[in-house]
Amino acid sequence: MTPADLPPALPAGPSVHPRFAQALRELGLDALTERVRTFPDATRTAAEAAAAVGCDLAEIVKSLVFEADGTPVLVLVDGASRVDVERVRRELGAASVKRANAALVRETTGYAIGGVPPFGHRTKTRVLADRGLLAHQVVWAAAGTPHTVFPMEPGELIGHAGGTPVTVREEPGA
């Protein structure tokens, strides 16, 4: 599915998280607010988002916050994959890496788990983006709430997130 295949745009109004709308303006992506989709049922998980959008699970972007030696880092990975924490640790040259708790996610990004977009965060954070995202023409990511997602070309999304393309997903059968 490409952005041209999407249903008509919905009114941006209150469905677009204010922090995310501001980030779009700052990036010159105001028109993207018309592509944000709001769903009555939650899109907190990749599976819920894929079902709502009607796309493959791998076309969903998970925005996951980890702590590397106590410093938050954002990892972007496709919805069908799991993050290999050891690969993240090696990529960052960190002694330890663990999933961030909900309070650190909100403090770092300004969003709750299940609605964290790939950019537009409260604080500047290092971003690792799994190369597997680049296998798709369009990916869908959270737009700041557990009920909203938006489509974007993956290279553009990684660029706006300030991400470094790396391989951090678990290998099948690992």
Give a structural overview:
- The protein has helices at 18-26, 46-53, 85-92, 102-109, 154-161, and strands at residues 37-38, 60-68, 71-78, 97-99, 126-130, 139-142, 148-152, 163-166.
- It is built from 5 helices and 8 strands, in the order H-E-H-E-E-H-E-H-E-E-E-H-E.
- Strands 1, 2, 3, 4, 5, 6, 7 and 8 form an 8-stranded mixed sheet that branches.
- The model is unreliable at 6-14 (pLDDT under 50).
- By secondary structure, the protein is of the alpha/beta class.
- The N and C termini lie far apart (30 Å).
Helix content: 10-25%
Order of helices and strands: HEHEEHEHEEEHE
* Separate helix tally: 5
Q: Biggest β-sheet: count, sense, barrel?
A: 8 strands, mixed
| Mean pLDDT across residues | 90
Keyword list:
24% helix; 8 strands; alpha/beta; 174 residues
Task: Summarize, please.
The protein has 174 residues and is an alpha/beta fold.
List the helices and strands and how they pair.
Layout: H1 18-26, E1 37-38, H2 46-53, E2 60-68, E3 71-78, H3 85-92, E4 97-99, H4 102-109, E5 126-130, E6 139-142, E7 148-152, H5 154-161, E8 163-166
Parallel strand pairs: 2-6, 3-5, 5-8
Antiparallel strand pairs: 1-7, 2-3, 2-4, 6-7
